Amino acid sequence: xxxxxxxxxxxxxxxxDTSNRKSLITSMESVPLSELGSDMEEVLYRTVEKLKKLxxxxxxxxxxxxDSLMDD
Length: 72
Description:
mainly alpha
């Protein structure tokens, strides 16, 4: 079962290398937490934890794009 990502989580993921799950996790984990506010730190942590639980197949089925590019 594919994890459900919030709009905020999807928007955050779209700022990184989404070519594959491992690259995305590595990119997100490399962000210095001191540069984030506590709210963004929580979104980042929650998103990475969800990504770690996905299989590569489930990840490949995700549509990751900023909210501004989504159809209404």
